[in-house]
Structures are given as structure tokens and as C-alpha cells.
Design goal:
This protein is mainly α. Helix content is 66%, strand content 0%. The chain starts with a helix and ends with a helix.
């Protein structure tokens, strides 16, 4: 297995030496995956500082030595922790950030369905019917006529 690893490293070094553009593309990809450790504000590919420049040089050196991208990333994670990665792996609580919106969406739809079903289950209030007014009896009719005459 050791000789197989040495062969793959030698092959990679030969490939990188034969195609420096491939090495440069790989270096640029790695720079975008790492944060500048001086301020943790930007990716190494965008940041302009001595620390970012040092990482850029180190990435190219390690690639030329035959290290894989994952080995280089692992080395930086071992030195700085997951914070060095521009996209840290989702673990523990950080997984909740990706799942929570979907949980809230499903819960909201369920709540709307429950409310609609309950509103449908409640029978509508009976329509208000006016009782037919009974014709006033004679005494009341006379009283109304009297009041109307007094208004004039």
C-alpha cells in the first residue's frame, strides 16, 4: 500500500509539473475554501494580508509536494480548527439551521389545515329572521295615531 501511495504522489507531482494550470486551479479552489486567519472576515482568495499571502504560497508548495486537497484542508483544520473553513461541516446544532426552516414550514401548513377544518366544523350562525310584526291592536293603533297628530 505504501508503494501505491508513493506512486500516486509521484504521478500527481508529474501531472502538476506537466500542467501548472491544473495546480493553479486547484490552489484557487483551496484558497476559496479557507478563511484568512488574521481577521476571519474573508476567504484567503479575496483577502489581502501577509497571513493570506503566506497561506496562498503554502497551498501551492503543498500541492507541488504532492499533497491532496483534502490533506491540505485537514492540515489547516488541525492547526486552526473548523473556523478556518469557509463552509464548516454541519454538526450538532448547526444541522438545525438547515432543518429548522423546513420544520417550521411543515408545522405552519399543518396549523393552517387544522384551523380551516375547525372553522368548517363550526356551523354558521343561523340567519337572523325578523319576526313578522303583528298588526297593532286597536288601542295601540289609536295611540300611534294620537302621537302622530301631536307631532304636527
Amino acid at each position: 500500500m505504501g508503494s501505491l501511495m508513493q506512486m500516486s504522489i509521484a504521478l500527481w507531482m508529474a501531472f502538476a509539473a506537466a500542467d501548472p494550470q491544473a495546480l493553479e486551479r486547484e490552489a484557487k479552489l483551496l484558497e476559496a475554501k479557507l478563511m484568512a486567519p488574521c481577521c476571519w472576515a474573508q476567504q484567503v482568495s479575496l483577502h489581502q494580508s501577509p497571513a493570506a499571502d503566506e497561506i496562498k504560497r503554502n497551498i501551492r508548495r503543498l500541492l507541488a509536494e504532492g499533497k491532496t486537497s483534502q490533506q491540505i484542508l485537514d492540515a489547516y483544520v488541525a492547526e486552526y480548527g473548523d473556523r478556518i473553513l469557509s463552509e464548516p461541516p454541519a454538526r450538532g446544532f448547526s444541522r438545525l439551521i438547515y432543518v429548522a426552516p423546513w420544520v417550521f414550514l411543515v408545522a405552519s401548513v399543518g396549523l393552517v389545515v387544522v384551523v380551516i377544518r375547525r372553522l368548517r366544523a363550526v356551523s354558521p350562525a343561523p340567519a337572523r329572521t325578523e319576526q313578522a310584526a303583528a298588526p297593532p291592536d286597536e288601542d295601540e293603533a289609536e295611540r300611534i295615531d294620537e302621537e302622530l297628530r301631536n307631532l304636527d
